[in-house]
Specification:
mainly beta; Umud Fragment, subunit A; 7-stranded antiparallel β-sheet; 4-stranded antiparallel β-sheet; 2 helices; 11% helix; globular
Length: 262
């Protein structure tokens, strides 16, 4: 004969609250120390990242700096609480990034802003662009013309865009867009990357504000690196709206979910 113990209603509610709090705590720890989600608001990294992509960033990839734990809690576009940066000197568990990594970093001129670009230049490198071709330490980065990218959504739907596959000296390969010849950053001077800094460029070469523009982005200090982009975990078209749930199956980019970034 067994005896069943009945829980009081308030005990059941408290158990539910504890489970929710534990889940929130686990999510907070993961977000703070391991993987942080970011959404992509611009097209500077097309075709690797599209507007409406959501990515997980490995915050432990390069170790932790004073910018690793600062965040702002916002509700309906209004900032309610800001935490950080924390008083860390240098980096804890420091590891150097690799050329070709897709990196989220704090904008040097305004660390409240997060940018995502591809790491092209290491400390001491000489970087230049000539007639749209990337040069590293005086040598042209090999690039091969591949099939055109065809825009599938938005006002430019159907437009053909030139694509090239670049291969960096360490073997990392990726696809870049070249919208037109003689863009504003298709011919530059030589950039010499300072010690402990990195040179970042967008894959959408004619539509990216990056290290080529010294007054806007410039060289990125090591301590400004937040982490390495790893995977696209969700993606939707710009037409998506939380107020139109009946449209969700049609605005989600199912084929992009789970795309590995490195």
């Amino acid at each position: 004969m067994s005896t069943q113990v009945q829980k009081k209603p308030d005990e059941g509610i408290w158990e539910t609250i504890k489970v929710i709090l534990q889940a929130l705590l686990i999510a907070f720890v993961i977000r703070t120390f391991l993987f942080q989600p970011f959404n992509i608001p611009s097209g500077s990294m097309i075709p690797t990242l599209w507007i409406g992509d959501y990515i997980f960033v490995n915050k432990l990839a390069y170790g932790y700096s004073k910018y690793s734990f600062n965040f702002t809690l916002s509700v309906f576009g209004k900032d309610l609480f800001t935490f950080g940066p924390v008083p860390i000197k240098g980096r804890i568990f420091a590891a150097r990034p690799r050329r070709g990594d897709v990196v989220v970093f704090k904008l040097p001129r305004d660390p409240k802003i997060d940018y995502v670009k591809r790491l092209i230049g290491l400390p001491g490198d000489r970087i230049q662009v000539r007639q749209g071709v990337l040069y590293i330490n005086g040598k042209a980065v090999p690039r091969k013309r591949i099939e055109d990218f065809i825009v599938t959504e938005g006002p430019r739907k159907g437009q053909h865009i030139r694509q090239f596959r670049e291969t960096l000296p360490n073997g990392v390969t990726y696809v870049v867009h070249d919208l037109f010849d003689n863009g504003m950053a298709d011919n530059t001077g030589i950039y010499t990357v300072p010690p402990n800094h990195y040179f970042m460029m967008g894959d959408n070469r004619d539509n990216s504000t990056d290290s080529r523009f010294l007054n806007e982005v410039g060289y990125v200090p090591y301590e400004n690196l937040v982490g390495k982009a790893k995977i696209i975990f969700f993606s939707h078209t710009p037409q998506a709206s939380v107020w139109q749930p009946w449209m969700w199956p049609f605005v989600i980019r199912w084929s992009r979910i789970g795309t590995w970034l490195g």
